[in-house]
């Protein structure tokens, strides 16, 4: 079995194109409800039936009262009333059950869609938005969308219908008393309208504050080693405490407004009860209103507060859900990485002499001065190319541009003979393997980390050979579950071991271009020799570009690209550059200065 496979034709290993992310819609709930509409309609019907059963209660109570006053049997109306009351409760429970099913399904869909979109955002966007803030959207904000479905689509419309139906029933019994009751509720209604209008604005501020807290917490926990080593816990605690206090300040008005809804509705009801009692007395005395009609009217009046409270509380919760929906709309409006359509195999260009070619490429990080200014160079299709230059000269940026993790401001980058922008991203990143400066491992087992990005099946023996090549075979064997040991939580490797594990992953690749950013930075000389040898073997069959400060990387390279930090690029062999470039001699002599 070959440990370091030669670059293979890529038809066999090209990954299937990922499903295109759903384009953002104007109303992100509509498509999320696909497949749930029947269940939602059933829930609405059940809710309506429950409201109707509740409405029937007072009407049947009137029958009971009039039967009692006429000294007739109350069995029929009493049974009917019991059935209505029990039925309303059972239907309400069923509606809640159905809505919980639809709500959680919708939230799950939203989370899937958000994660899919987040993972396709450009790096720059993710940095600008903040990892913690984006995490808060997927975790807490997504759950709030459930209220939009439950309240917005069922509870609120049903509450409005129930309120209208109750008022109609009251009007049928006595229109005058109905006007009196409605007028008395009016002031409370106006207060409720003002409160709910304010709530959406407040809920948006609350969710943004939660996002900022999550962002701060993520940032500090990610840098926990430094936080502890620099005794920064107290300052970090204060900063996070301030963020938490902001959440409290933003949440308190929302909670207070929510708390006010119940008392305002109750106040409106009390006012209506008082007004109706005052208005009904003379009418009863004059015989314009029977006792049974009054008792029915009164029960409806008491009943009225229930749908009004549901509507008021519902509007409040809906505003919170709508604020979350706005945040998701903004998230989905962030453009994903630009991708190119997959070309048919026949359209693929033959393997060119230069694996990577930069023509007049300029790049500026947002908020910074230009990193690359009209830079041109080529890296051969076979062999080791060293990318050198002082710290901050733009070496990592060059590698990121090749992998299209960032896009150039101008100029053209050709990868394997085709403009990088024309490659479907998935295919470009199949054909280029990139090891970042931190030699990042993903949270998972040793095996998962080694197999990351590989589409072909890889047996344990091949994994072990790759580990052997970087001197890690015995280390991994001694782990509690060998290749299946999870890393990054309770159990972890040293910095150098993690870096070698990341290099071992690269050794398994079939890509025609391998980009390594400081792959030796944490290694002792014995490990460095192992890695250097493994990289040389890789470079025997493909283009390997190594960004490095190490002299060894430069000495062994067939081709050197020097970014001198002032936008100038010098290329050639090591000896040629030694003879012709003062910057190169200074760099080799250890005179690499930071760029800024
Ligand atoms: N995310 C970023 N946002 C803004 N500016 C950045 C960002 N990353 C890098 N830069 C800037 O871009 C310039 C080039 O950075 P880059 O990491 O490419 O340099 P480098 O040559 O790889 O440095 P080093 O050898 O220290 O790793 C630096 O001046 C840096 O300040």
TrEMBL record:
- Domain ABC transmembrane type-1 positions: 41-320
Boundaries of each ABC transporter domain copy?
356-590
Q: What superkingdom does the record give?
A: Bacteria
Q: Per the annotation, which location comes first and is thus the protein's main one?
A: membrane
Q: How does it sit in the membrane?
A: Multi-pass membrane protein
User: Which keywords does this Swiss-Prot/TrEMBL entry list?
Assistant: ATP-binding, Membrane, Nucleotide-binding, Transmembrane, Transmembrane helix
Q: Where is this region: Disordered?
A: 1-27
From start to end residue, where is composition biased (Pro residues)? Answer: 17-26
Q: Which PANTHER family match?
A: ATP-BINDING CASSETTE SUB-FAMILY B MEMBER 10, MITOCHONDRIAL, ATP-DEPENDENT PERMEASE MDL1, MITOCHONDRIAL
Name the residues that span the membrane. 38-61, 81-103, 153-173, 179-197, 297-318
Recorded GO CC terms = plasma membrane
Q: What is this protein called?
A: ABC transporter ATP-binding protein
Keyword Nucleotide-binding listed? The answer is: yes
GO MF annotation: an example: ATP binding
Q: Does the keyword ATP-binding apply?
A: yes
Where, subcellularly, is it found?
A: Cell membrane
What PROSITE patterns does the entry give?
ABC_TM1F (PS50929), ABC_TRANSPORTER_1 (PS00211), ABC_TRANSPORTER_2 (PS50893)
Q: What is the scientific name of the source organism?
A: Streptomyces kanasensis
């Amino acid at each position: 079995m070959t440990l370091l496979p030669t670059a293979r034709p890529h038809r066999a290993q090209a990954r299937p194109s990922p499903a295109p992310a759903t384009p953002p819609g104007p109303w992100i709930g509509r498509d999320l409800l696909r497949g749930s509409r029947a269940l939602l309609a059933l829930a609405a019907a059940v809710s309506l039936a429950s409201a109707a059963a509740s409405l029937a209660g007072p009407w049947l109570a009137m029958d009971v009262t009039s039967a009692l006053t006429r000294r007739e049997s109350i069995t029929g109306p009493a049974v009917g009333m019991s059935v209505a009351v029990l039925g309303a409760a059972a239907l309400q429970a069923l509606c809640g059950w159905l809505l919980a099913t639809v709500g959680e399904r919708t939230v799950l869909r939203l989370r899937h869609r958000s994660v899919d979109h987040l993972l396709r955002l450009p790096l720059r966007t993710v940095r600008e938005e903040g990892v913690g803030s984006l995490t808060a959207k997927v975790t807490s904000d997504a759950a709030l969308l459930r209220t939009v479905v439950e309240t917005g689509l069922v509870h609120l419309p049903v509450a409005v219908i129930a309120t209208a139906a109750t008022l109609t029933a009251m009007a049928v019994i006595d229109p005058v008393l109905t006007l009196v009751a409605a007028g008395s509720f009016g002031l409370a209604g106006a207060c409720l309208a003002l409160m709910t209008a304010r709530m959406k604005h407040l809920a948006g501020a609350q969710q943004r504050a939660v996002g900022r807290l999550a962002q701060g917490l993520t940032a500090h926990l990610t840098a926990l080693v430094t936080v502890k080593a620099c005794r920064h816990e107290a300052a970090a605690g204060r900063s996070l405490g301030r963020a938490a206090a902001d959440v409290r300040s933003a949440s308190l008005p929302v909670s207070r407004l929510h708390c006010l809804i119940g008392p305002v509705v109750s106040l409106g009801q009390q006012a209506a009860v008082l007004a109706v009692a005052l208005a009904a007395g003379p009418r009863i005395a004059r015989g314009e209103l029977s006792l049974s009609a009054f008792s029915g009217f009164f029960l409806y009046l008491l009943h009225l507060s229930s749908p009004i409270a549901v509507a008021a509380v519902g509007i409040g919760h809906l505003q919170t859900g709508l604020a979350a929906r706005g945040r998701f709309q903004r998230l989905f409006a962030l453009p994903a990485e630009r991708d190119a359509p997959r070309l048919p195999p026949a359209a693929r260009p033959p393997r060119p002499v230069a694996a990577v070619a930069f023509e007049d490429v300029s790049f500026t990080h947002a908020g910074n001065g230009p990193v690359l200014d009209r830079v041109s160079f080529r890296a051969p299709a076979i062999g080791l190319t060293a990318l050198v230059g002082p710290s901050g000269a733009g070496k990592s940026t060059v590698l990121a541009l090749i992998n299209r993790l960032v896009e150039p401001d101008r100029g053209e980058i050709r990868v394997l003979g085709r403009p990088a922008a024309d490659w479907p991203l998935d295919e470009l990143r199949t054909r280029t393997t990139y090891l970042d400066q931190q030699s990042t491992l993903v949270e998972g087992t040793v095996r998962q980390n080694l197999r990351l990005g590989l589409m072909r099946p890889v047996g344990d023996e091949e994994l072990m050979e790759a580990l052997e090549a970087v001197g890690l075979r015995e280390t991994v064997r001694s782990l509690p579950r060998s290749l299946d040991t999870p890393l990054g939580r309770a159990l972890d490797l040293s910095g150098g071991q993690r870096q070698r594990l990341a290099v071992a992953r690269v050794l398994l690749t079939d890509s025609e271009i391998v980009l390594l950013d400081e792959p030796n930075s944490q290694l002792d000389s014995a490990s460095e020799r192992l890695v250097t040898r493994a990289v040389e073997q890789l470079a025997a069959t493909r283009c390997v570009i190594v960004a490095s400060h190490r002299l060894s990387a430069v000495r062994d390279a067939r081709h050197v690209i020097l970014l001198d930090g002032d936008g100038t690029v010098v290329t050639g062999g090591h000896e040629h550059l030694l003879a012709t470039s003062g910057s190169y001699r200074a760099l080799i002599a250890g005179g690499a200065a930071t760029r800024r």
